Structure formats: structure tokens, C-alpha cells
Amino acid sequence: MSRDPTILALYSAHRADLVNYASAILGDRAHAEDVVQEAYLRFSDAARERPLDEPLNYLYRIVRNLSLDVHRRLGRERSMQVQGEEGERAAVADPVASPEAVAVGREEIRLMNRALAELPERTRLALEMHRFGGLPFKAIAAELGISVGLAHLLVVQALDHCRQRLARARPGDKD
């Protein structure tokens, strides 16, 4: 799986500008670095499959699209975090949960554990390291011996799987 040296040279020559471009969209340099690395992998694969008419423009388009995807994902995660914090404040306001709320909470935990058990081990580990351990993608990648882009992809896939399982499941259903 050798990389085209002209593609690598183009990427290397514009990497700093690409990171600045992604950073402007994301407002976060660390995420921008991850996006640019993932963009290079996609760009390199595309260049291997077919000749690119305007490779630099294509590379910038990949960076833009990935940056917008990450920006949307981060917005959803922040929104979920805010909703969770509001729920925690509500729980503090009413320290005694109703039996129904306890039952629903236990069912959601059971469903989440089942969804996690369905994941491939590497995907589950990446999610646990990121969401429960608070590790950045770079640390996850180093721990699992994979690229930062793949670490990010594994976490996204795991989150999507868990969301789908929870959305499909109804309390009391037996799968």
C-alpha cells in the first residue's frame, strides 16, 4: 500500500494551511489536526483510484466536508452534554426518583450494556477510552496501534450503533 510521492508532496506542502483552514471551521486546532490527517488518507485513496483534475482543490474540499461533519458532531455532543447536565440538575432538585424513573434508568443501562457487548472489541475499547476514560483520539490511536483517523471513526461508529440500539429498543421489549 504505497503512497504516491507527488500526492504526499502536495499534502506536505499545504498541510499547515489545511490545518489552519480546518481550525477556522472547527475552532479547535486539535480536531483540525485529526481532520487533516483523515483528509489525507481519503485524498490518497482517491488519487490512487483515479487521476484528479484539481488535486489541491479536491483536498481542500475533503478537509471542508470533514470539518463540517466534525463540527456538527461536536455540536450534537455538546447539546447532549447540556441536556445531561440539565437532567442532573433536575435530579438534584428531586433527589428521590420515582420507581418508574428507576426502572427506566435500569432498562437503559441494560440496553446500553447489550449494545456495547455487540461491538467488535477494538471499537468498544475505543469508545470506552474516549467517552469513559476521556482520552483524546491521539492517545486511543497510540494505545490500539491505529491511526488517529481510524480511532475517531471507531468511536463514531460505536456511538451510532449505541444510539440506534437505544432508539430501536422499547422498555420491556425482549430482543
From TrEMBL:
<comment type="similarity">
    <text>Belongs to the sigma-70 factor family. ECF subfamily.</text>
</comment>
<dbReference type="Pfam" id="PF08281">
    <property type="entry name" value="Sigma70_r4_2"/>
</dbReference>
<feature type="domain" description="RNA polymerase sigma factor 70 region 4 type 2">
    <location>
        <begin position="112"/>
        <end position="162"/>
    </location>
</feature>
<feature type="domain" description="RNA polymerase sigma-70 region 2">
    <location>
        <begin position="10"/>
        <end position="76"/>
    </location>
</feature>
<dbReference type="InterPro" id="IPR013324">
    <property type="entry name" value="RNA_pol_sigma_r3/r4-like"/>
</dbReference>
<keyword id="KW-0804">Transcription</keyword>
<dbReference type="GO" id="GO:0016987">
    <property type="term" value="F:sigma factor activity"/>
</dbReference>
<dbReference type="InterPro" id="IPR014284">
    <property type="entry name" value="RNA_pol_sigma-70_dom"/>
</dbReference>
<dbReference type="InterPro" id="IPR039425">
    <property type="entry name" value="RNA_pol_sigma-70-like"/>
</dbReference>
<dbReference type="GO" id="GO:0006352">
    <property type="term" value="P:DNA-templated transcription initiation"/>
</dbReference>
<dbReference type="InterPro" id="IPR036388">
    <property type="entry name" value="WH-like_DNA-bd_sf"/>
</dbReference>
<dbReference type="GO" id="GO:0003677">
    <property type="term" value="F:DNA binding"/>
</dbReference>
<dbReference type="InterPro" id="IPR013325">
    <property type="entry name" value="RNA_pol_sigma_r2"/>
</dbReference>
<dbReference type="Pfam" id="PF04542">
    <property type="entry name" value="Sigma70_r2"/>
</dbReference>
<keyword id="KW-0805">Transcription regulation</keyword>
<dbReference type="InterPro" id="IPR013249">
    <property type="entry name" value="RNA_pol_sigma70_r4_t2"/>
</dbReference>
<dbReference type="InterPro" id="IPR007627">
    <property type="entry name" value="RNA_pol_sigma70_r2"/>
</dbReference>
<protein>
    <submittedName>
        <fullName>Sigma-70 family RNA polymerase sigma factor</fullName>
    </submittedName>
</protein>
<keyword id="KW-0731">Sigma factor</keyword>
